[in-house]
Amino acid sequence: MNSMNTNYSIRDEIRDFWSERADSFDQSVGHEIFSEEERKGWQRLIRKHLGEGQGRPLLDLACGTAVISHLMHDVGFKVTGLDWSDAMLAQARAKAKKRGTDIRFVSGDAENTMEPRDSYDAITNRHLVWTLVDPASAFKEWFSVLKPGGRVLIVDGNMGRETWVKGLQKFWTKLTGRPAASHMSPEMMARHQKIRSRVHFSKQMPAEAIVDLLREAGFVDIVVDRKLGDIHWAQARKMPFLRGLERLVQERFAICARKPG
């Protein structure tokens, strides 16, 4: 990380943060999938909002190590995974080679994909929107890349919202002097919070705020789906107790929207 360089922007910091996490990314519950129950939950969600792939082209933004890319491929989409972290893409390509899948991977910025206009039937992303510096411009970009009638499926959550479990975690730390279990080191947690303080959704990110920006970008038929309990329960069972409890009470959601046509 070269934070002393005056040209080093928040976008560079986000890219470098996730690049440094690439090697261990798939070790975390909530990133990679660790049970067939969770996999079935994801497939249910995908089919509910996007239907069967049937060879239709799909762009998975901020694909990371290609966890969502492979879910989309398994449902039958012709998948392109885009990420601006070369380290993440290296992991994604290695995984695709091992699994024998034909997913195409490209290096690019989710806010300015450089992909052809009107070229994808669907766009997906998971835990991307909270990192966007300019989500309004990003949504307009996604709108232009979709074919008329194409859909975007966003999976994210209002992680900045305080929950009673977070309060319990803070009490536990104060009582025992030990922080709650985390998949990140204290140094990485501090960097994560620094990044979060500078992006558009620096505090809370309710689904309604995303819906407003999608509507401004031209999307219609916007649906907020909060019925992700099968996914979250499967994840929670693989987590330490307090982290799993937090996963169950967080405000997480999927949002699907359509480009007219």
TrEMBL record:
Query: What is this protein identified as?
Result: SAM-dependent methyltransferase
PANTHER family per record = METHYLTRANSFERASE, METHYLTRANSFERASE DOMAIN-CONTAINING PROTEIN
Domain Methyltransferase type residues, every copy: 59-154
Q: Which keywords appear in this protein's UniProt record, sorted alphabetically? A: Methyltransferase, Transferase
Q: Name one GO molecular function term.
A: S-adenosylmethionine-dependent methyltransferase activity
Top-level lineage group: Bacteria
Give the GO terms filed under biological process for this record.
methylation
UniProt organism field: Rhizobium chutanense
